[in-house]
Amino acid sequence: MIEERFDSRTLAIMNAALDHVCADALRGEEHATRKRVARYIIKCAKSGRITLTELTEAGHQALVKVAAAAG
Question: Among 17, 21, 46, 50, which is least packed, fewest CB within 10 Å?
């Protein structure tokens, strides 16, 4: 589980990044969008980049890839 991999502070920052990215995204409330963004945020955190800025940027990268695939 993800909770076992990260401490509570990191999890809170990851959740904040997810909420921030999805709040501004087209279809950000949809499960599929949140799931894709979350995957990028988790991957970023696993690499050791755990600041809010880094995690938010990772989430935005997921949205860019979704938009590129759709258009």
Answer: 46
